[in-house]
């Protein structure tokens, strides 16, 4: 097992179509974990979610998050991010821009615009994770 550098951790987060597993805190303190699609903006992670989803309500109430992304093929690797979120719900152009980028990453360039149109709408939250801590390991089974 080897620790990734910060640069390697961000390269890992940006590579391919790995899904993030986002942990938020429910009002009663219980954890909630949900898969998300995301993109990077510098050192921030950006995703969209509907305002009435469990994670959306949790994030509006308590902006603390943890996110893990892993590689499920040998020799295995993972990145865990801890941070807080900034939420925008009133800039549809910005929301559509990021939803389109997310769509391009996960659905392909030919589906990006449709994904952006579907998710750049009123009620969709644009969430920016401001990273406070990263734990990143590679070659776990080497």
What do you see in this structure?
By secondary structure, the chain is an alpha+beta fold. It has one domain (2-138): Pnp Oxidase, Chain A. The protein contains four helices and eight strands; from the N terminus they run βαββββαββααβ. It has helices spanning 6-14, 54-61, 92-107, 109-119, and strands spanning 2-3, 20-25, 31-36, 39-41, 44-50, 64-71, 77-88, 124-138. Strands 1, 2, 3, 4, 5, 6, 7 and 8 form an eight-stranded antiparallel β-sheet that branches. Strand 2 (20-25) and strand 3 form a beta hairpin. Helix 3 runs antiparallel to helix 4. The mean pLDDT is 97.
Largest sheet: 8 strands, antiparallel
Q: Which CATH class applies here?
A: Mainly Beta
CATH topology heading: Pnp Oxidase, Chain A
Estimated helix fraction: 25-40%
Discrete helix count: 4
Strand runs, count: 8
How far apart the termini lie comes to: 7 Å
Secondary-structure map with pairings?
Elements (H helix, E strand, L loop, with lengths): L1 E2 L2 H9 L5 E6 L5 E6 L2 E3 L2 E7 L3 H8 L2 E8 L5 E12 L3 H16 L1 H11 L4 E15 L4
Antiparallel strand pairs: 1-8, 2-3, 2-6, 4-5, 5-8, 6-7, 7-8
């Amino acid at each position: 097992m080897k620790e990734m550098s910060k640069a390697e951790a961000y390269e890992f987060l940006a590579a391919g179509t790995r899904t993030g597993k986002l942990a938020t805190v429910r009002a009663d303190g219980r954890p909630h974990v949900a898969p998300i699609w995301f993109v990077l903006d510098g050192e921030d992670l950006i995703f969209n979610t509907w305002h009435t989803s469990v994670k959306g309500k949790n994030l509006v109430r308590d902006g603390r998050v943890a996110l893990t992304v892993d590689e499920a093929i040998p020799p295995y690797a993972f990145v865990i991010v801890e941070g807080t979120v900034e939420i925008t719900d009133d800039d549809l152009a910005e929301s559509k821009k990021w939803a389109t980028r997310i769509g391009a990453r996960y659905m392909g360039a030919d589906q990006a615009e449709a994904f952006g149109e579907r998710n750049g709408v009123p009620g969709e939250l644009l969430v920016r994770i401001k990273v406070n801590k990263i734990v990143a390991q590679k070659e776990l089974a080497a």
